[in-house]
Design goal:
Shape: elongated
Radius of gyration: 26 Å
Number of helices: 3
Strand order of the largest sheet: 2-1-8-6-7
Number of domains: 2
Helix content: 25-40%
Length: 165
């Protein structure tokens, strides 16, 4: 066997390092141009063509506790024919009023007709519309809330479609 001399081994090592550097910089440049913040936002916000659209806010739940430390909201929705218990990470919601949390939840669920009036009350949500007999009521603990108020991290929001008293 022929002995490989140190200078030849050094040249081979330098060529390998150079090729790896060129490969790394090429990929970094390519993916830096391909994945912009605009494309990321479009992927996150747009609705998939395969997503089932619903008109029932109680049909699905966003389950599990996110790794959000102290920046989450528990959103519990009670309808005539079911309930939906959800945990949402506030870091993923750009604006943080309670109405914004409900709009983001509706967007995730594929519900496109959440209507909140200027007084901060739900008028209609999916197939549930306020009437003389029934209406939406949202509370934190036992206190009724205005949906235009800021969402307080680690709070439990209960929205109930219930009989009017």
């Amino acid at each position: 066997m022929k002995n490989i001399r140190i200078p030849e081994l050094l040249v081979v090592a330098m060529v390998v390092v150079l090729l790896n550097s060129v490969f790394y910089l090429t990929l970094k440049s390519y993916y830096g141009r391909k994945f912009s913040e605009e494309n990321k936002e479009k992927m996150i916000v747009s609705t998939s063509v395969y997503k089932e659209i619903t008109d029932d806010p109680c049909k699905w739940s966003v389950i599990g506790d996110p790794d959000a430390k102290d920046s989450y909201i528990k959103l519990n929705i009670f309808c005539d024919d079911g309930k939906s218990l959800n945990t949402l990470d506030l870091r993923a919601i750009k604006k943080t009023t309670i109405a914004d949390v409900l709009h983001e939840f509706s967007r995730m669920q594929g519900i496109d007709n959440l209507i909140i009036n200027e007084a901060g009350e739900i008028v209609s949500w999916g197939k549930y519309t306020n009437s003389e007999n029934k209406s939406w009521s949202c509370k934190i603990d036992i206190f009724k809330v205005n949906l235009n108020d800021e969402a307080v991290p680690k709070s439990n929001i209960d929205c109930v479609f219930e009989n009017n008293l």
